[in-house]
Each structure stands twice: as structure tokens, then as C-alpha cells.
Amino acid sequence: MTTEQNPTTTDQQPQVEEQSAAQNSSPAAAVGKIVKSEEEWRQQLSAAEFHVLREAGTERPFTGEYTDTTAAGVYRCRACGTELFRSDEKFESHCGWPSFFAPLAEDRVRYITDTSMGMRRVEVRCAACDSHLGHVFEGEGYSTPTDLRYCINSISLTMDPR
Ligand SMILES: [Zn+2]
């Protein structure tokens, strides 16, 4: 996992604290979120991973390594390792990407309205590191408990078998 970039702050050195707060442009870091520069992500991820996770790209359908995976396990964010989805909520949607009817917990993901490509879609991102995961669609008539389809790129995930 990541280590805090801030030097260990002590009560005797409030100036150091101020300095590091100024360097961190996002206040999100205060609530345990993972904030890295795009350059750091570029070094950590492969070019294909970076394109999907950090540039909201989409892998080609029926090409991802987890599209048809039915093994039991937990799917973690490939960028930061946060546990996002479980095999228990994965279902066969035949859409070409891994599909889940719910995240592991609602606080693991966040939603952004995406109006690119002339459509109104809801983008799904990792709540911890803000990496792009895919989109969520509702009301498609799948016989799942939620009638939601979290359409997630395989390349955004790492599966840990149980
Ligand atoms: Zn993440």
C-alpha cells in the first residue's frame, strides 16, 4: 500500500504541517483518500492501465481477463488496492465486460454523471483513489436483486481468489 508522503509531523513543528498542507492541493487527503500525481500513476501503471484508470478509457469488449470469471474472490482496485467488488455480486450480463449488480459497499465507489459520447451515463470511480472503473446502468431488466449493472473494465481490477 501507499505510505504517507508527508513527513511525520509533531506538535512542536507546526510550520512543517502548514507546508505539507500547502503542497497537498486536495483536502481529500485528510479523509484517507489516496492522492498521487498523474506522473506517479504513470510510473506505477502500465500504459493500458493508465489509459483506463486515469483517462477514463474503455477496454475493448470481450477482451478483459475477468469478463467470464466465475471464481469466488474479491476484486480490488488495480491502482490502489481497495476492495471494490465481490464475486457474490458478479453476474453474466453478456455485455463483454465484468458486470456486478452492487459494489462491495457503497462507500467504496463514487458516481459522476458522464455526458461524453452524446449519452448521459453514470461513471463509477474508486472512492479511495478516484480512478475510473466503468459505468453503472439501471433498468435493463437483468434478473438481479438491484436491476443495476456495474459495467467495469477488467483492467481496472485485480482479483484475489478466495
Ligand atoms: Zn483505487
TrEMBL record:
<dbReference type="Pfam" id="PF01641">
    <property type="entry name" value="SelR"/>
</dbReference>
<feature type="domain" description="MsrB">
    <location>
        <begin position="38"/>
        <end position="162"/>
    </location>
</feature>
<dbReference type="GO" id="GO:0030091">
    <property type="term" value="P:protein repair"/>
</dbReference>
<feature type="region of interest" description="Disordered">
    <location>
        <begin position="1"/>
        <end position="33"/>
    </location>
</feature>
<dbReference type="InterPro" id="IPR028427">
    <property type="entry name" value="Met_Sox_Rdtase_MsrB"/>
</dbReference>
<dbReference type="GO" id="GO:0033743">
    <property type="term" value="F:peptide-methionine (R)-S-oxide reductase activity"/>
</dbReference>
<keyword id="KW-0862">Zinc</keyword>
<dbReference type="GO" id="GO:0005737">
    <property type="term" value="C:cytoplasm"/>
</dbReference>
<dbReference type="GO" id="GO:0006979">
    <property type="term" value="P:response to oxidative stress"/>
</dbReference>
<keyword id="KW-0560">Oxidoreductase</keyword>
<feature type="compositionally biased region" description="Low complexity">
    <location>
        <begin position="19"/>
        <end position="30"/>
    </location>
</feature>
<dbReference type="InterPro" id="IPR002579">
    <property type="entry name" value="Met_Sox_Rdtase_MsrB_dom"/>
</dbReference>
<feature type="compositionally biased region" description="Polar residues">
    <location>
        <begin position="1"/>
        <end position="18"/>
    </location>
</feature>
<dbReference type="InterPro" id="IPR011057">
    <property type="entry name" value="Mss4-like_sf"/>
</dbReference>
<protein>
    <recommendedName>
        <fullName>peptide-methionine (R)-S-oxide reductase</fullName>
        <ecNumber>1.8.4.12</ecNumber>
    </recommendedName>
</protein>
<keyword id="KW-0479">Metal-binding</keyword>
<dbReference type="GO" id="GO:0046872">
    <property type="term" value="F:metal ion binding"/>
</dbReference>
